[in-house]
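Field log, afternoon session.

UNIT: design team B
ACTIVITY: writing a sequence onto a fixed backbone
BACKBONE:
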């Protein structure tokens, strides 16, 4: 091999290295393009989405028709404030009742007999105590104390006193 052949081979290697770098850059661009194409919805999916949105728009427009016609009585600010106040008051009552119920339930389940779980007692309380099978003898067989029955009765019947 002569020096000229080696120089030609070096030139060819340099050209091939440049071609490889260009091919890798093109591959990277094509992969990015492929990822973006795969991320977009197909035409059928877009048509389905448009159909659903048109149906929803028609439904909402139909519901807004009576409101736009002016047949709706406007709500006064005082009325809105009164309703919001009642909503807040009833929310507080509900939270108070929930706390009382949970506290009483905790006391009741402290007396669960061995071999019974809290879940067993819960199921029995709401299926047996308040159903047709409710009596004071069944709780002993099911691992429920008389104190638990009394607390359950209090929760059910005395919550009206909080109002």
């Amino acid at each position: 091999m002569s020096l000229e052949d080696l120089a030609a081979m070096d030139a060819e290697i340099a050209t091939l290295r440049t071609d490889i770098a260009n091919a890798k850059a093109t591959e990277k661009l094509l992969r990015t393009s492929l990822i973006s194409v795969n991320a977009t919805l197909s035409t059928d999916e877009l048509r389905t989405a448009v159909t659903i949105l048109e149906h929803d728009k028609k439904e909402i427009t139909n519901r807004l028709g009576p409101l736009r016609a002016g047949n709706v009585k406007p709500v006064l600010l005082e009325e809105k404030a009164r309703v919001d106040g009642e909503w807040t008051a009833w929310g507080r009552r509900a939270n108070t009742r929930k706390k009382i119920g949970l506290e009483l339930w905790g006391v009741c389940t402290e007396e669960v007999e061995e071999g019974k779980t809290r879940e067993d007692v819960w199921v029995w309380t709401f299926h047996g105590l308040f159903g047709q099978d409710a009596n004071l003898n069944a709780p002993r067989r099911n691992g429920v104390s008389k104190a638990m029955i009394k607390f359950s009765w209090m929760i059910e019947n005395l919550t009206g006193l909080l109002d």
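LOG NOTE: Residues 128-142 have pLDDT under 50 and may be disordered.
NEXT ACTIVITY: expression trials, pending approval
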